Amino acid sequence: MIKLIDSGVYYYNGEFVSEGEMTKRGIGKDILTSAYKGTMAYGILSAHNTVDTVKGGDMRIRFDAMASHDITYVGIIQTAKASGLQKFPMPYVLTNCHNSLCAVGGTINEDDHVFGLSAAKKYGGIYVPPHQAVIHTFMRENMSGVGKMILGSDSHTRYGALGTMAVGEGGPELVKQLLKRTYDIKYPDVIAIRLSGKVRKGVGPQDVALAIIGAVFKKGFVKNKVMEFVGDGIKDLPIEFRNGIDVMTTETTCLSSIWATDDEVKGYYATHGRLDAYRELKPEPIAYYDGMVDVDLNKVEPMIALPFHPSNVYKLQDVIDSPYDILSAVEKEGNAHFGSGKVKFNLVDKIKNGKVYVEQGIIAGCAGGTYDNVIAAANILKDGSIGSGVFTMSVYPSSQPIYYDLLKKGAIGDLMKAGVTVKTAFCGPCFGAGDVPANNALSIRHTTRNFESREGSKPGNGQIASVALMDARSIAMTAKNGGALTSALNADYDDTVAPFEFDKSIYEKRCYYGWEKADGGAELTYGPNICDWPKVIALTDNLIVKLAAVINDPVTTTDELIPSGETSSYRSNPMKLAEFALSRKEPRYVGRAKEIADSEKERQTAGTLPKEYADMLEKAGIDVKGTVSIGSGVYAVKPGDGSAREQAASCQRVLGGVCNIAREYATKRYRSNLINWGMIPFLSDDAFEDGDVIYVENVRKGIIEGDGEFSAKLIREGASFDITLRLDRLTADEKDIISKGCLINYYKSEMEK
């Protein structure tokens, strides 16, 4: 089904060959050396790069447009405002698809929406009201374009199937763009994703995506690289099928994605009244790739990602045929993860009379709620019933134009007659703010993620539910059978899809289009929960770090660092949101971090170290020279998988956090968030324990002038040990940001010059 080629390959006039074969064909070394320039990714990146770059060199990227949803845009705009923002320098879309139905916190959510509209008017942005569209559907429909680059503050910012390179990053990277700065990266490796064959009836985009994720994630095969989709298999894939695969590339930890374009893509732009955004895009006759993922679409089957990660992938039929073996193994692993807490994770109890029964089905968001997916589900369920038992099902079309056309086509009626609840565009089921399953329930979802508690349960309160990711087609077949897990492979249903008809007037009547209409005299509208960022001091000469959390899980997601769901209602109040930091993973973290922060406040007030720390350093034989501050730290083996939201870092920072220590960082975006909030992304191979204290001498000088290696002292139970901390390469700007304390301080210093 999928083969990984972990070595360089050349694309040569439509086929892939080795370097040796290229030489045999008489291709000179000079051509081979420069063949990396033949990829689609190179062409787009170089067109947006503001400096000269060779392979492996530094790039400084300016984007064509940006997008944020209501979990992130208030903080981004507040940060940019504090840093001197006058008007948006590019189209910036503010959507309201994440907390539009969340009632926690009284007026908080709508206050943020009103703030967003006022910001769009003041700075010249585009505002999409609640229920109109999920962020990525709106961007596909309205802002994509072949050869463009788009930056989003949501990790699933992916429009590669439409010829647009899109990147999901934390909010500070969007702030940089708003202030006319650049996105700084080294030129990335590019991996060819060769699609061949043709998908079988009943196989959907989520199946293909999960198959790829399962093959590459654990190996880190495409981590921080660009996935470039090519091959004859593309031509038979409808455009929404391609979009459905593409949006899930985020779960591979790749940097971005791009696809070859054709008449199918041209048709999409024509349907949406933007034919001028289309051009043909394909690799040059000779192109070099740093590796390849070879996907035979004909062999892809319906897949399922069992809790608690999109990479925990199995063939759906294998789970149906051998449920006990597979579910018991996943259950055992899950309970080892939860430990001896308040909850017991159950999956085996879903097996009844040899069949696996689930309690809920959801089709929603940027991955699931597309026109084609909903049509397929409606066709399968037509004249059927989901039954009147425990099983429930909801479908969320991902935009009002899609909803409207589905109504016209009769698909909404077919779903409703089958017992399905149809709701408006909302990302809630993707992040735990809508359709939270019952305790011990298993929900099958065509959404983006199935991390622990992502569906909204609270294991710390004795609640546990879980999610398995599946394609809309197999979800509909399962629903048709009353919740009994069922594959859609070769199912008997009408798989024809009537052409989508886009009515832009739906947006024109509700959305605010303010690009190039900035009104500098307009006032921002603040609600009582919208607060400025607290002040952060610059990095001192030396640093005392006390670990407030030590996490030894193989991977730590951003959902574990700052839970999603109703906690996001407090997204515009840094201190209130910080109260939830690591609450589901390490409930003691916030209290510990506050105690450490109190010690630092005492130091700042008195001008000397508190006695506890002074005695500790003296006993360890450490002679402090220069200023020294105290801050908390988090150790995790591999932190940062998951969402782009910067709150995973900022919540630590406002609680007095100064660093993370890790074996490696799961994603570039999380490491960037740490840096932009002035936190040092240390690396170490040492083992750490709760309460460890680390003294890092000359840390400021080491950041600014050093070689990325720091000699440090680990203090544990009165004894001290020599350890080495490392830093991967930092740009000059990143060094400056950390030394000044955070991005806001960095820009304030620039303004004062």
Descriptive notes:
The chain has 753 residues and is of the alpha/beta class. Among the domains are: 203 residues, Aconitase, domain 3; 211 residues, Aconitase, domain 4. The chain is 32% helix and 20% strand. The chain has 28 helices and 34 strands. The strands form 9 sheets. A 7-stranded mixed sheet has the order 31-30-28-26-32-33-34, sandwiched between helices. α4 crosses α7, α14 packs across α16 and α14 runs parallel beside α18. The chain is globular.
Strand fraction: 15-25%
Instruction: Going across the biggest sheet, name each strand in turn.
Output: 31-30-28-26-32-33-34
- What portion of residues is helical? 25-40%
**How confident is the prediction overall: mean pLDDT?**
93
| Biggest beta sheet summary | 7 strands, mixed
From the coordinates shown, what is the CATH architecture of the domain at 542-752? Answer: Alpha-Beta Barrel
CATH homologous superfamily of the domain at 542-752?
Answer: Aconitase, domain 4
Low-confidence spans: pLDDT under 50, at least 5 residues? none
* DSSP helical segment count: 28
Radius of gyration: 26 Å
How many E strands? 34
Give the termini distance in whole angstroms: 58 Å
Structural class: alpha/beta
Key features?
Aconitase, domain 3; 6-stranded mixed β-sheet; 753 residues; 32% helix; single chain; Aconitase, domain 4; 34 strands; alpha/beta
Topology summary:
Blueprint: E1 2-5, E2 9-12, E3 15-17, H1 19-24, H2 29-33, H3 40-48, E4 58-61, E5 65-68, H4 73-82, E6 92-95, H5 108-123, E7 126-128, H6 135-142, E8 149-152, E9 165-168, H7 171-178, E10 183-186, E11 190-196, H8 205-216, E12 226-230, H9 239-247, E13 256-259, H10 263-271, E14 286-289, E15 291-296, E16 303-305, E17 313-315, H11 316-321, H12 323-338, E18 351-352, E19 355-356, E20 360-363, H13 365-368, H14 371-381, E21 392-395, H15 400-409, H16 411-417, E22 421-422, H17 428-431, E23 442-446, E24 466-469, H18 472-480, H19 505-508, E25 512-513, E26 542-551, E27 556-557, H20 558-561, H21 574-578, H22 589-606, H23 611-619, E28 628-636, E29 639-641, H24 647-654, E30 657-662, H25 668-676, E31 680-683, E32 693-696, H26 699-705, E33 709-716, E34 719-726, H27 732-740, H28 743-752
Parallel strand pairs: 5-6, 5-8, 6-7, 8-9, 11-12, 11-15, 12-13, 20-21, 20-23, 21-22, 23-24, 26-28, 27-29, 28-30, 30-31
Antiparallel strand pairs: 1-15, 2-3, 2-14, 4-10, 7-25, 16-17, 18-19, 26-32, 32-33, 33-34
